[in-house]
Design goal:
399 residues, alpha/beta, 5-stranded parallel beta sheet, 3-stranded antiparallel beta sheet, 17 helices
Length: 399
């Protein structure tokens, strides 16, 4: 069939042609946002799930919902090489400028600019702000958000921005993707800032997305995190939703998947949205049509595995040290479900304390997480199978 008409879109954060299975999360977000706009208390949210489950797509949709509800909504993506302040400052500056553009002067908005300047000055020497310069045209608000202590200063900044929004009868939604890359001190500061905002019933909310370890990190950072956030789980799609994600886009173009072809795709992808898009994309290009048959899907599996091995899996594999690769190879050998850390150590022939630094480093890199005390599991679906393909011979034995 014509590849130019292929409806599927495998890619990081690419919106699928059919967003299914996320209605409950989107409705939960809509209710929370609407309550906040009405001046009623509402929790912030963190979407939690493995890689490839499609957290970014609903996060972007929630941002759109917030904008439609009158919010000043911003989206940032956390990563290892940039601090939270450096990510937030340009975006909050834009929020304040948009509030300042509304007719009539607002002292709360002007104060927001001054507090933003103080925040930047106070943290420049202590955080990775680099060469970030913001043109604000105001003097700092001395004695506010300028201590250099991120927890104290971010709280004062959030309160000032939220007060400015409230003065304009607006609200602010801060959407943060890949929250697991925040340092523990940054996550703690973010939670404390939200706590201060919530205590004052101000119209500012955070909607984030992150890997499963973000729940434990939040709890360790601040014991009251569970009272500030809901943590809706974003998992693989149900068989019915996964089938709809495949069938609906092609049916709109006069094409359909055979039933056994859909069954095969679901078996190979386990219902993970990213992989559904990959298999659907390859199957479309292979099929003659108008029916995508089982044999088309089997050939699509060969192409999909090759494509994933060269990109989705490979970019993560190449970030690992040789010893980390050995650790993940050991995890893959034990199987796809959660495994005990002690069993990994046994394969290495060492005590569990000896491999703890490897385990911690891989958690920090977002390759594994601990679903329960002493257990570990891949954060990347199907990564175990990749490890067996890319490292057919185990190198950890006898070390």
């Amino acid at each position: 069939m014509n590849p130019l008409e292929n409806p599927f879109s495998p890619g990081a954060g690419s919106p699928p042609p059919e967003l299914v299975g996320r209605d409950a999360i989107l409705e939960q977000a809509h209710v929370a946002l609407h309550r906040l706009r009405l001046g009623r208390p509402a929790k912030s949210m963190i979407l939690v799930g493995l890689r490839g489950v499609g957290k970014t797509v609903p996060l972007n949709r929630i941002r759109t919902i917030a904008e439609g509800d009158g919010f000043r909504a911003l989206l940032i993506e956390a990563h290892e090489n940039k601090s939270l302040p450096a990510l937030l400052l340009p975006q909050l500056r834009q929020v304040l400028f948009s509030l300042d553009a509304i007719e009539n002067v607002s002292e709360k908005v002007k104060r927001g600019f001054r507090v933003l300047r103080s925040f930047m000055n106070g943290l420049r020497a202590k955080t990775k702000l680099g060469d970030l310069e913001l043109e604000l045209g105001v003097d700092p608000e001395k004695g506010t958000a300028d201590s250099g202590d991120l927890e104290a200063d971010l709280s004062e900044l959030f309160v000032a921005v939220a007060e400015a929004a409230a003065d304009r009868k607006k609200a602010v939604a801060i959407c943060i993707d890949k929250l697991q890359y925040l340092s523990e001190s940054e996550l703690s500061a973010l939670i404390m800032a939200l706590h201060q905002v919530a205590q004052r019933a101000l119209p500012l909310v955070v909607v984030g997305a992150g890997l499963p370890q973000i729940i434990g990190l939040s709890g360790r950072s601040k014991s009251y995190a569970e009272r500030l956030f809901d943590f809706p789980a974003v998992g693989p799609l149900t068989p019915a939703d996964a089938a709809s994600a495949l069938q609906s886009p092609v049916q709109r173009q006069g094409v359909c998947f055979a039933e056994d072809a859909i069954t095969e795709v679901l078996k190979m992808t386990q219902g993970y949205p990213y992989f559904l898009q990959q298999w659907g994309y390859e199957a479309w290009d292979i099929a003659v049509g108008p029916t995508i048959e089982l044999n088309d899907v089997k050939e699509a599996t060969v192409r999909s595995v090759k494509a994933l091995d060269q990109s989705f899996f490979r970019v993560r594999f190449d970030r690992l040290t040789p010893r980390e690769k050995d650790y993940l190879r050991a995890l893959a050998e034990l199987g796809g479900r959660p495994q005990r850390s002690s069993d990994i150590a046994e394969l290495f022939g060492v005590k569990v304390q000896s491999v703890a630094p490897l385990r911690n480093g891989l958690i920090h890199k977002g390759m594994i997480y601990s679903p329960a005390h002493g257990d570990i599991e891949f954060t990347v679906p199907l990564f175990g199978e990749f490890m067996l393909r890319v490292m057919p011979t185990a190198h950890f034995r006898g070390r």
